[in-house]
Amino acid sequence: MARLRRIEIAMVAFIAAAALLPAGNAAAAPPTWAFRGGLIAILEDNGLEGDPAPILPLPGAALAIPLVWRLDAEPSIDLYSAVYGFSDLLGRPVPYALEYRSTRVVSALVGLPLAITVPLPGGVRWRFLAGPAFDLRLCLVAEGLEGADLEDASAETADTAAYFWGSGRWVSPQIGTGVEIPASDKFWLGIEARAWIPAYRLWTGEELPAAEGWRLALSLRAGQR
C-alpha cells in the first residue's frame, strides 16, 4: 500500500509540475496520431489457481494534443483479450488456461495521460507519460462451451463481471516512458514501456498478493511528426 501511495504522489507531482510550465506556441500545433503494437503481461500470484502471468497481444492508438511547451494531452486506447475463471478458493477471477476457461474478457484500456517529450542528440526524443487510465472489461461467456459447462460458465461470468466492475476495480492509472527516432520527415518510430497501477487496492480492503492487478506492456510505436 505504501508503494502505491508513493507512486500516486509522484504522478500528482508530475502533473502539477507540467501544469506550471510556461506557455509556448505548442497549442497552435495540430494533434498527431500514433499507433502501437506490443505485448501486455497480466501479473498474478495465485498459486495453482490459474495462469500466473498471461502475456497477450496489445494493439492500440493515441492522439497527442499539444498543450504548452513540450507537454501533450494524450488520450489513448489499447485492446487485449484473455480467458478467466472464477476461483471460489480466492474469491476472485483469475486468468485460466484455455481448457479451463469460463469467461472471455475483452478489455479496452482507456488512458487520459499527460506526456512530456525531451529532445536528445541525433534527433531522438525521450517521452514520459503519466495520468488516469481505466481498464474497461467486457465479460462474455467463453466460446465453445456446452451443457453443464455452459451453465457453470454463465454463473462464473456473472461473478467475474461483478468483481471487475465493483468497488472501482477498473481504475488503473498508468505511467510510461519510451524513445522515438525520426524515421522520415513525417513519421517517428519508437519503443515504449508502460505500467498500469491497481490503485483500487487502496480502498477495496482486500488482502491481495503484491503482483495482483498490475499490467506491464512493451510496445513498438509509429507516429506522425
What does this protein structure show overall?
The protein has 225 residues and is α+β, with helices and mostly antiparallel strands. The protein has one domain (2-224): Porin. The chain is built from three helices and twelve strands; from the N terminus they run αβββββββββαββαβ. It has helices at residues 2-19, 147-165, 201-204; strands at residues 32-42, 55-68, 71-73, 76-87, 92-95, 103-111, 114-119, 125-131, 133-141, 174-182, 187-196, 215-224. Strands 1-2-3-7-8-10-11-12 form an eight-stranded antiparallel beta barrel. The relative contact order is 0.19. Residues 18-25 have low confidence and may be disordered.
Short description:
By secondary structure, the chain is α+β, with helices and mostly antiparallel strands.
